[in-house]
Amino acid sequence: MLFKEIAYGPIHSRRLGVSLGMEIMPLEHKLCTFNCVYCECGWNESVSHPQLPTREEVKAALEEKLSTLSSQHSALDVITFSGNGEPTLHPDFLGIIEDTCAMRDRYFPKAKVSVLSNSTQLGRPEVVKALRLCDNRILKLDAATDEMMRRIDLPVNEHLRVQTVMEWLAQFDGDFILQTCFLRGEHNGQPIDNTTPEELAAWYKAVETLRPKQIMIYVIDRKTPEEHLYKIPREQMEAIAAPLIAKGFDVSISA
Q1: Could you give phi then psi for residue 194, rounded to 5 degrees?
Q2: pLDDT greater than 80 at residue 15
Q3: Contact indicator for 96, 83 with CB cutoff of 8 Å
């Protein structure tokens, strides 16, 4: 499932409301630093010179869409960057976010600017600066152990460690939304399950260390590139959330 337009929708997001999607990765294939087994966009493709929309193209597409929606008196809750890979990979990501915030203020001042990121580019100061301009920094941590992170997210950088991601996330002093997909199954003969007592204990510890302002936990909802994955039941998701809710954390469940 790939997005074929720079600005698409609005669509109704199960987590964010009425959302105008922004695609700043290639429109023909996925480009990401992860190769998650559950990604609705499929597997990464090997492309030597990926074609990204320019900052000017993104600005023009967004302004055209916002102008039309405004003239139609349409509702808009959020402008969301996600799509066909990792949006923070774009070399003009900071400039794109600056343009977006300016146009949001002009056309839909009550709308939020949100970015869904896999957290792998948080070692770059310009990415952190851009994310600080956004209303919602929705940052991934699918597992709190190195082995399970590698099995679920299949990072392109095989040396990436959870501790490094934790240090990057800590830069926001809890002013971000932590996002985790819970699932089980197998890939290439290796079991995948971030709901075991051991995995949950490590994840709870990470949450209590980072203390994000909100936590979004969700399950697979669409076709996945790895076929041998299973959806976690709602009851189990509620059980995963319960200890954190009891400690005062704001946890939302999409299941």
Answers
A1: -95, 20
A2: no
A3: no
Least Cα distance to 171 among 118, 115, 127 occurs for: 127
Structure tokens at 133: 């301009």
Give the angle 178-241-153 at the CA atoms, nearest 5°: 45
First to last CA, the chain: 20
Rounded to whole angstroms, the Cα distance separating 9 from 39 reads 20
Strands 190-193 and 183-187, sheet pairing:
antiparallel
CB atoms within 10 A of CB 255: 18
Distance, CA of 194 to CA of 176 (rounded, Å)? 22
- What residues have CB less than 8 Å from 240, skipping those under 6 apart? 182, 195, 200, 217
Closest by alpha carbon to 243, among 213, 215, 210?
215
**Span 170-224, pLDDT tens digits:** 999 999 999 999 999 999 999 999 999 999 999 999 999 999 999 999 999 889 9
How far apart CA 93 and CA 15 sit, in angstroms, is: 23
- With beta carbons less than 8 A apart as the criterion, state whether 165 and 123 touch: no
Query: Each residue of 36-92: pLDDT tens digit?
Result: 999 998 898 776 678 899 999 999 999 999 999 999 999 999 999 988 899 999 999
d(CA 235, CA 255) in angstroms, rounded, equals 9
Tallying the residues shown for the chain, one arrives at: 255
Give me 254's structure tokens: 């999409």
